[in-house]
């Protein structure tokens, strides 16, 4: 989703902006722009489409010496993805970038228009710049003008503003959308996430909601909560893979080793939680969006069957406004790869307000969700660049599985033998996520037959139902084909009406969980001529096509092995269709608006 960068210093500001925006590219965007203020000249460039268009547009532009700059990648909310609607938005002497949504923009716009102000764009953001310039005329100084402007806004925002009235400064404000400021010797950087800052700064401050201020080269140390920041720029190479998504699918074997490191012992599990963590917890409520929701739903089956803990799972956007009843003995778990998803963050705030014990399962340390939750556990999947989540999903399921065992171990809900068996199953699940080249080749071949039907059903039962949902979501996200995940037993209650030879049905048939039941459901579809592709350990006669996974002794290994098949199937179909797998249309990696 929208990304922000800002810079104060002596480097070539255009290059700093473009390279910062490149680091945010994977999050998804549809237009981009930069403003550079140097030697009293304010220059703005914006384009639609990819960053290469912006690079071409400003290729002859240079700004030497000291100056300030702001940059933005936009994911359209108010107004189409046009050049005029792209950020920065500028007035006569100032320029602004903004993430979030200004809810009262129409009211402000109507007032300013009645005073003769001309608006160029359809965005909510443009009101900020005109309001600021109006305030500059009436306020005694520029900071007061900026504060008055921000105080007139209702909504969520991370804002950076530069102005010729204060040419060595960047004005900033944060409420609800993430914003960081970092420093190295003689340089200040801003960004909406840490990715563009890694390797460039040695100190960082994660701004808090309500922070409004102005920064120049000397004022970083006036901030509170400055933390050291280290780290090399993460390798953003594809290492010979065609897409980041492909690399991330292959990485899962290594990632899961990191996820379980120090958490799995011989006879028990251990987590970075205080000893009294489970005290007073009798049930679990999980809240998340997208792939993280599918991981949460998988955890419900694990928590209830294996760990004997009652669990409910809710989509965060549905939870927020439903006036949910929150029992005090619930552990409230939010799951988020990015740690910035607006709906999940707001659901978490609601749970905190209701004094629930809250726990974040997250991939990004210091993200808004990690900072908001009372407790957090990191999935350790590393930066995920493909918009379609893969390694984040497997690491979430793995960590949740361990968490379930941890809670039931602490509460004596399951026996030592049961714990040992699960630990053994966790260890062999690490083998199940190794990509088998035979299976990948098979899916490459198979993919050419699965391009032109009228839709896909992915079916599974029990924990293979959320996996079916995830398989359908992967395919939808990157191939743009219509795909739905269903519990196998539900087909006959409506969806089966769609069955004919042009309907592709991917059936997850684990040997170790409800095999005969899902076989029956698959047979019912086959009898109505649907084209059936089964994923299983052994051949059976229901299938038109079959993807054989390796032999495993329990259903969770089958779960992870089938997950790999579904991820690769989506990848290969999308590649055949010629789609941009890593940056699919309309999607954003981190959704910071509700
Ligand atoms: C977006 C992404 C999905 C992701 C969802 C939740 O929609 O495109 O891949 O699953 O947000 O994101 P989170 O970062 O909270 O897991």
Question: What does this molecule look like?
Answer:
The chain is of the alpha/beta class and 594 residues long. The protein has three domains: 3-228, Aminohydrolase, N-terminal nucleophile (Ntn) domain (Glutamine Phosphoribosylpyrophosphate, subunit 1, domain 1, 4-Layer Sandwich); 238-430, Glucose-6-phosphate isomerase like protein, domain 1 (Rossmann fold); 435-594, Glucose-6-phosphate isomerase like protein, domain 1 (Rossmann fold), CATH 3.40.50.10490. 35% of the residues lie in helices and 23% in strands. The protein has helices at 13-24, 51-57, 105-114, 126-138, 142-151, 244-250, 252-260, 290-306, 316-320, 342-353, 368-372, 391-410, 416-432, 437-447, 464-479, 515-527, 555-576, and strands at residues 3-9, 31-38, 41-48, 67-74, 89-90, 94-102, 155-163, 170-175, 180-184, 187-191, 203-206, 212-215, 227-228, 283-288, 310-315, 330-336, 357-362, 375-378, 455-460, 483-487, 503-509, 531-536, 545-548. The strands form four sheets. It has an eight-stranded antiparallel sheet, with helices on one face. Helix 12 packs antiparallel against helix 13. The model has no long low-confidence stretch (mean pLDDT 94). The structure holds 6-O-phosphono-alpha-D-glucopyranose. 6-O-phosphono-alpha-D-glucopyranose binds at residues 289-292, 336-338, 341, 344, 387, 389, 587-591.
């Amino acid at each position: 989703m929208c990304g922000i960068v800002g810079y104060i210093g002596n480097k070539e500001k255009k290059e700093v902006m473009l390279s910062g925006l490149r680091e945010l590219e994977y999050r998804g965007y549809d237009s981009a722009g930069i403003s550079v203020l140097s030697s009293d000249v304010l220059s703005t460039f914006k384009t639609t489409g990819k960053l290469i268009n912006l690079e071409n547009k400003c290729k002859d532009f240079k700004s030497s010496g000291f100056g300030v700059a702001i940059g933005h990648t936009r994911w359209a909310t108010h107004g189409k993805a046009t050049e005029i609607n792209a950020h920065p938005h500028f007035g006569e002497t100032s320029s602004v970038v903004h993430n979030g949504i200004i809810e009262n923009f129409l009211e402000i716009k109507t007032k300013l228009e009645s005073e003769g102000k001309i608006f160029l764009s359809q965005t909510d953001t443009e009101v900020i710049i005109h309001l600021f310039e109006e305030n500059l005329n009436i306020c005694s100084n520029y900071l007061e003008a900026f504060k008055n402007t921000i105080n007139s806004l209702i909504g969520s925002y991370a804002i950076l503003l530069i102005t010729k009235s204060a040419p060595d400064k960047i004005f900033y404000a944060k409420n609800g959308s993430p914003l960081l400021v970092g420093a190295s010797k003689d340089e200040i950087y801003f960004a909406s996430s840490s990715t563009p800052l890694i390797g460039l700064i040695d100190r960082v401050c994660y701004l808090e909601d309500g922070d409004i201020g102005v920064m120049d080269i000397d004022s970083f140390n006036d901030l509170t909560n400055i933390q050291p920041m280290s780290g090399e720029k993460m390798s953003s190479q594809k290492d010979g893979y065609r897409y980041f998504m492909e690399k991330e699918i292959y990485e899962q074997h290594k990632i899961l080793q990191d996820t379980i490191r120090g958490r799995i012992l011989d006879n028990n599990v251990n987590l970075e939680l205080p000893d009294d963590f489970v005290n007073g917890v009798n049930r679990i409520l999980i809240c998340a969006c997208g792939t993280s929701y599918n991981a949460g739903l998988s955890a419900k089956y694990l928590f209830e069957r294996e760990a004997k803990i009652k669990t409910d799972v809710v989509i965060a956007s549905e939870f927020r406004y439903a006036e949910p009843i929150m029992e005090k003995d619930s552990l409230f778990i939010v799951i988020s790869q990015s740690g910035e998803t607006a709906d999940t963050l707001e659901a978490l705030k609601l749970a905190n307000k209701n004094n629930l014990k809250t726990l974040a399962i997250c991939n990004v340390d210091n993200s808004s969700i990690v900072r908001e939750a009372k407790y957090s556990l990191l999935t350790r999947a590393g930066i995920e660049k493909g918009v379609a989540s893969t390694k984040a999903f497997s690491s979430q399921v793995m960590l949740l599985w361990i968490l379930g065992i941890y809670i039931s171990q602490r509460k004596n809900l399951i026996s030592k033998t049961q714990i040992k068996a699960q630990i053994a199953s966790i260890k062999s699940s690490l083998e199940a996520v190794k990509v088998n080249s035979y299976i990948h080749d098979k899916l490459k071949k198979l993919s050419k037959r699965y391009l032109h039907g009228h839709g896909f059903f992915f079916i599974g039962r029990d924990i293979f139902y959320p996996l079916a949902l995830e398989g359908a979501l992967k395919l939808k996200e990157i191939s743009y084909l219509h795909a739905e995940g269903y519990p196998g037993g539900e087909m006959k209650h409506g969806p089966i009406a769609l069955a004919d030879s042009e309907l592709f049905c991917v059936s997850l048939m684990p040997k170790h969980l409800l095999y005969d039941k899902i076989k029956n459901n698959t047979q019912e579809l086959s009898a109505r001529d649907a084209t059936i592709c089964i994923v299983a350990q052994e051949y059976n006669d229901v299938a038109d096509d079959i993807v054989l996974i390796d032999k495993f002794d329990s259903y969770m290994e089958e779960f992870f092995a089938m997950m790999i098949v579904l991820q690769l199937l989506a990848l290969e179909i999308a590649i055949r269709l010629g789609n941009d797998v890593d940056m699919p249309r309309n999607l954003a990696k981190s959704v910071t608006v509700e």
